[in-house]
Amino acid sequence: MKMMRLLMMSLLSAGVFASAACSSSQPTEDESVSEQPATEESATEEGVQGGEMEHAEGDDHGAMAEAPAEEEAAEGELIEATARVINGEGEEIGQVMFKEVAGGGVQVSGMVSGLTPGLHGFHVHENTVCEAPDFTSAGGHFNPASHEHGGPANEHSARHAGDFGNITANEDGVAEFSFVDTMISLSEGENNVVGQAMIVHEGEDDLVSQPTGAAGARAGCAVITLVE
């Protein structure tokens, strides 16, 4: 019995020493937890800094990209004007549009109906009034530089600013047209036609006869008005 008691005490002592050795070689729960937040905090801080830098760069890039588009839109604004054509009875028979061309000059386009088939003199006139039925209120051709009458193919010094030549009506009496005139303006200078009257004549402009090309009576009239 005494021998058995001594053996059991020896075994118990060996178990206690083994348990102590194992516990001393493993980190405590507190130690393992205390190291983790430091790692996560560092990673989080780096991630936030990186995100802020990327966002800032993105904002700068967006601002740089948008600025030229705004400048281009401002530079691209071109002045436009319109003219409603009426006949001797005061009925609207067409419309003419004027638009500045980026490279210089003014595009003139539109449609006039109720005409006889063939060529019809087409001019800007010096006054600002269209009074039916004969439209003599529009005065003579718009000619601020006091040049001789001519046609659109002439040099600027050999034509009136308002000399657009002729438009051509088809068999139905409808004239459709589009051309660019480099002598007139919609915004500045003595050749600015905004506010002027324009006339469609009953006959053809021969581009030679003075002072109006022998184009005959006035079939239609319109006042050129800026488009707001």
TrEMBL record:
Pfam families in UniProt: Sod_Cu (PF00080)
GO-annotated molecular function: copper ion binding
Record's compositionally biased regions (Basic and acidic residues): 52-63
Region (Disordered): 23-75
KW Signal (keyword) present: yes
Signal peptide bounds: 1-20
Domain Superoxide dismutase copper/zinc binding stretches: 94-224
Gene Ontology terms describing biological process: superoxide metabolic process
Keywords: Signal
Record PANTHER family: SUPEROXIDE DISMUTASE CU-ZN -RELATED
Record-stated family: Belongs to the Cu-Zn superoxide dismutase family.
Name of the protein: Superoxide dismutase family protein
Organism: Lujinxingia vulgaris
